[in-house]
Amino acid sequence: SILAKWCMAHHRENFTYTHFPELCEIMAAYDVSFSLGDGLRPGSIYDANDEAQFAELKVQGELTKIAWEHGVQVMNEGPGHVPMNLIKENMEKQLEWCDEAPFYTLGPLTTDIAPAYDHITSAIGAAQIGWYGTAMLCYVTPKEHLGLPNRDDVKRGVITYKIAAHAADLAKGHPGAQAWDDAISKARFEFRWRDQFNLALDPVTAEEYHDETLPAEGAKVAHFCSMCGPKFCSMKITEDIRQFAREQGIGESEAIESGMEQMAGEFREKGAELYVETAD
Question: Looking at the domain assignment, is residue 23 inside a domain?
Fold first, then answer.
């Protein structure tokens, strides 16, 4: 908007565009890279993928080639506010028009209805465009559109974007991404609470949430959490079935069948009624 005001005041083209080759010489002399901005990026879902946005993207491609001719590295800035069904087109056009120069995006935000939660609305788009091939994600805090973020806002925004980036890495089959998920899943199944906390993106918060309902140190070795309790934990039930199978010297499927037969027998012995009267 500052440059737009200058252009209107002087009735002239943007001087950074008309003098771009000279700027490239300066950047090359000091070995500095360009981050080519996108002042016409969509600021609302309504504007996503409009003519102005894509016209500017083509100009970014033009300037990228000029910078490369001067030996200057470039990354292209991207949107913005874009609904999920239009995100892929942004990535495809950038790769084509900018000759696969690194693309970095703010989100994009996938809806405009959630002020105070735009770290989430944008992380949804970030995960998608990360999967499609963007090179870098610009994180968003909960204060986006509302005010300056504080330390906690920054932490929430960064962690949210680490989740989006990792989700994209998983979708792309990035080496090591699946190994991290497998490690924490195994720790969860084996009730290794300390390992589960330490493998988390935010170990401190993970442990704090666990300890809100089960603060005792002994709960760190318990084979359940407060979500399902000791009787209904699916992982504990699976562990019990495996233990039963080992004790009986049979396979897991046979153990399940045996357990089902036993419970069916108890059901019939009690009258085969779904509803049982209890004492007052």
Answer: yes
Does 257 fall in a domain?
yes
The CATH number assigned to the domain holding 15 equals: 3.20.20.540
Q: How would residue 280 be classed by pLDDT, with cut points 50, 70 and 90?
A: low
Give the global pTM.
0.83
* pLDDT tens digits, 171-208: 999 888 999 999 999 999 888 999 999 999 999 999 99
pLDDT given for residue 264 in this prediction: 87
DSSP string, the chain: -HHHHHHHHHTS--HHHHTHHHHHHHHHHTT--EEE--TTS-SSGGGTT-HHHHHHHHHHHHHHHHHHHTT--EEEEE-SB--HHHHHHHHHHHHHHTTT--EEEE--BS-SS-TT-HHHHHHHHHHHHHHHT-SEEE---TTTTTS---HHHHHHHHHHHHHHHHHHHHHTT-TTHHHHHHHHHHHHHTT-HHHHHHHSSSHHHHHHHHHHH--SGGGGS-S--TTTHHHH-HHHHHHHHHHHHHHHT--HHHHHHHHHHHHHHHHHHTTS-SS-----
Which domain range does residue 261 map to?
233-271
The number of folded domains in the chain is 2
- The predicted-structure confidence for 231-244, as pLDDT tens digits, reads as follows 777 777 777 777 77
The answer on 237 and 133 residing in a single domain is no
